[in-house]
Amino acid sequence: MENFLGFLPLLLVIATLIGVLIFMRNRRKKYGTPPLKGVAGWLAWLVFCLIVLAPLIAISTTANEISSSERLYPNLVGKAFWENLKMWTWFLSAIQASAFFLAGIRLWKFHNPKSVMYTQLAFWIAGLGINFFAAFALVPLVTGVSEAPSSTAVGELAKTLITVAVWSLYLKVSKRVQATYYADQPVLA
Question: N or C, where is the chain less crowded by C-beta within 10 Å?
Answer without folding.
Answer: C
